[in-house]
């Protein structure tokens, strides 16, 4: 089902918030870097059993950037928590893809009294800031900052990084090239630079102390979201379930279907559609 967005003001940033407004189990589900609510819909099947809340993070989707700086995973997590507060959602399953997974992990660690469970889809971060797999985002951001967009795109498309991605992770390359086409490319480059050099602000010891049901989903043929990172997180979080799904680069439809099925199975098994309010 589609949720019509509302607008929440945070400082001077107008953020689009999608809330299905029904369902016994609240699920906060956040998109990846440069993504939006449509990306969430690809990965999560809305159901009458779940109330799904998604905030389009600053300068992403239909949300404004605002003047607040620096952009950070902490800032985005605080925005999400404010949206949950405004919606009257006290406890929820924290979920997300890539950057959204880092936001979810931060929420679970910093606000254990609010988080019922954790779903991390294709995580790009474990615990360290500025992981090497996020370096291509910083590279794209630097080019956008320093050159006219057409020149920047051509420079990246002919770079050593692009050659590697073209061979080993074509789906990642398509996403990276798409950033040069964004209407807000300049401000989004600020977001990319900041987030690529950031981290969830969660230590491995803190993750080992999590006491909620967790699911980690990973896939191969992905240089930005290494399968090894997903496995590492699943091992670090006590009793976390792990699911490996078909890579997007192999079969996108099958990939999304398997992600949706894995999440639905996890939520049904661990929460049994009970009222969690």
Automatic annotation (TrEMBL):
A Pfam family annotated for this UniProt entry: Abhydrolase_1
Residue span, AB hydrolase-1 domain: 26-245
GO MF term (any one): hydrolase activity
Record's keyword terms, sorted: Hydrolase
Name by which UniProt lists this protein: Alpha/beta hydrolase
Species of provenance: Mesorhizobium kowhaii
Organism lineage string: Bacteria, Pseudomonadati, Pseudomonadota, Alphaproteobacteria, Hyphomicrobiales
């Amino acid at each position: 089902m589609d949720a019509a967005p509302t607008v929440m003001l945070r400082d001077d940033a107008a953020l689009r918030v999608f809330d299905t407004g029904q369902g016994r189990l609240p699920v906060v589900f956040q998109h990846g870097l440069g993504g939006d609510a449509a990306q969430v819909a690809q990965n999560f099947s809305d159901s009458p059993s779940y109330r799904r809340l998604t905030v389009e993070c600053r300068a992403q989707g239909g949300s404004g950037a605002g003047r607040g700086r620096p952009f950070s995973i902490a800032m985005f997590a605080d925005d999400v928590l404010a949206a949950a507060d405004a919606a009257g959602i006290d406890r929820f399953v924290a979920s997300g893809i890539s950057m959204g997974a880092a936001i979810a992990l931060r929420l679970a660690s910093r606000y254990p009294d609010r988080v019922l469970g954790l779903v991390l889809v294709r995580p790009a971060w474990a615990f360290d800031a500025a992981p090497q797999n996020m370096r291509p985002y910083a590279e794209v951001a630097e080019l956008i900052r320093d050159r006219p967009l057409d020149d920047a795109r051509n420079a990246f498309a002919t770079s050593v990084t692009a050659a590697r991605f073209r061979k080993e992770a074509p789906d990642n390359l398509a996403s990276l090239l798409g950033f040069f086409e964004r209407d807000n490319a300049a401000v989004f480059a600020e977001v990319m630079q900041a987030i690529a050099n950031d981290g969830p602000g969660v230590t491995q010891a803190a993750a080992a102390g999590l006491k909620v049901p967790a699911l980690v989903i990973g896939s191969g043929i992905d240089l930005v979201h290494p399968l090894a990172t997903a496995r590492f997180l699943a091992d670090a979080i006590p009793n976390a379930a792990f699911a490996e799904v078909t890579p997007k680069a192999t079969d996108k439809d099958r990939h999304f279907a398997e992600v949706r099925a894995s999440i639905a199975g996890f939520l049904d098994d661990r929460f049994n559609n009970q009222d969690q309010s």
